[in-house]
Design goal:
- It is a single chain.
- This protein is an alpha+beta fold.
- The chain folds into four domains: 64 residues, no CATH class; 115 residues; 90 residues, no CATH class; 105 residues, no CATH class.
- 59% of the residues lie in helices and 11% in strands.
- It contains 16 helices and six strands.
- Strands 1, 2, 3, 4, 5 and 6 form a six-stranded antiparallel sheet that branches.
- The termini are far apart.
Length: 403
């Protein structure tokens, strides 16, 4: 910021020096005036954003202080029956409803504060630990989709005013087009490569190319047209190819599970054996914070820090543990722990109902998931060959030109 201010102040002065201008003081003053005008314009533009943020802050504060997201999480968990996909569909519908009638900034603040913690909590129970940015983009996607969803669809009313059409019919038609893309947020939740998380330059280029191909194939399958009109099985095959390109890890998981479950009693030894700066994925089980008679559980990825014995490495990760009767008991959290959210999930310190490490999940040594691109691309090539042949066969002959 200071560098940009310096450039704005001095740019006219420096140009005047190189041009041999004799009004250098005037040039310098002009730069100061430009910076001042820019700050005034920026302050004016921030008024609407500041008001929206302040109003949304009231909602965020009310949600965090009352624990409303926890209650929403319980409702979603009950309705989904613990099924991860059903849970995500319910959250998507709720985000769609919450986003109705809200401007973009307020929309994001509301859906991210209310629904993002629900996904993080319930996904962790299912053993799926998601990057926070992926979760926020998921709920924000459906929140923004509310703009063309009747009966509130603001974008539908704006489009209807331009086209002189009926707002409800315009909204329904727009929603019918948009809902086809509702699968995409689900895909980048399960394949974070699409968001370029922990992806190097070469792999980023590969992801761009593959994702572009998959989006085009998805559009072709849903519209029923590729090189020529699709047959039913061709549209189904294109959807299969697009899904494989978007999420090849699904097929790899069917061949070999991503993790090997080990008993929680081995947690100390496995933590000590982990490399310097390594991580350990665990599942902990214990009494629920709101109802101690109910057993709760969640999954964590611990950053173990420097090499050492098991207890020391758990302490470095933020957990204070001890071994007792063949179990690794979680006694509490360190003062600087980044796992403070566990205080709101579990009752800690009860000797009769201890919080303990239930199992440890070790990554399996597997082949690259990109290997499944090969059969998908072969199937795509087969469909292209068939459609191009059919296109040439049924293309009408040009009529000869007449005088």
């Amino acid at each position: 910021c200071l560098a940009m201010i310096f450039i704005a102040v001095t740019q006219h002065f420096i140009k005047g020096v190189f041009r041999g201008d004799h009004h250098l003081v005037k040039d310098f003053t002009r730069g100061i005036e430009n910076v001042t005008e820019g700050m005034i314009a920026g302050a004016r533009n921030m008024i609407s954003i500041g008001i929206a943020t302040a109003a949304a802050g009231v909602i965020v504060g009310a949600i965090s202080l009352t624990g409303a997201h926890a209650m929403v999480g319980e409702v979603v968990e009950f309705l989904s029956g613990g099924n991860l996909i059903i849970m995500l569909v319910l959250v998507a519908i709720m985000s769609l409803i919450l986003g109705m009638g809200l401007p973009t900034t307020a929309n994001y603040l509301v859906v991210s504060s209310l629904m993002a913690p629900v996904i993080m909590m319930l996904a962790a129970k299912s053993g799926l630990i998601l990057p926070l940015v992926a979760v926020h983009l998921f709920v924000f996607y459906f929140g923004i989709l509310a703009d063309d969803t009747p009966p509130v669809g603001l974008a539908a009313y704006a489009a209807a005013a331009i086209s002189k059409g009926d707002p409800i019919k315009t909204g329904l038609q727009g929603f019918a087009y948009d809902i086809r893309t509702a699968l995409l947020p689900f895909l980048f939740l399960f394949n974070t490569d699409l968001l370029l998380i922990n992806v190097g330059p070469f792999k980023a280029i590969l992801v761009f190319v593959i994702a572009t191909m998959a989006m085009m194939l998805f559009a072709s399958a849903t519209q029923g047209w590729f090189f020529t009109k699709n047959k039913m099985w061709e549209s189904a095959a294109l959807l299969l190819v697009a899904f494989t390109l978007f999420r090849p890890g699904f097929w790899l998981d069917q061949v070999k599970p991503p993790f090997e479950a080990r008993p929680g009693a081995e947690a100390m030894a496995l933590a000590a054996a982990a490399p310097d700066g390594g991580t350990l994925r665990i599942r902990i089980t214990g009494p629920d914070f709101d109802d101690p008679d109910k057993i709760n559980y969640t999954s964590l990825i611990l950053k173990l820090g420097k090499a050492g014995d098991g207890e020391t490495r758990f302490t470095q990760s933020g957990l204070m543990v001890m071994e007792d009767n063949g179990k690794v008991i979680v006694e509490g959290l360190t003062w600087d722990s980044k796992l403070k959210h566990l205080d709101k999930l579990f009752t800690m310190g009860d000797p009769d109902k201890p919080l303990y490490i239930d199992e440890v999940l070790l990554e399996n040594d597997r082949m690259p998931k990109e290997i499944f691109y090969i059969p998908a691309l072969l199937l795509l090539g087969f469909i292209i060959m068939i459609q191009r042949r059919r296109h040439r066969t049924y293309r009408p002959e040009k009529e000869p030109a007449t005088a």
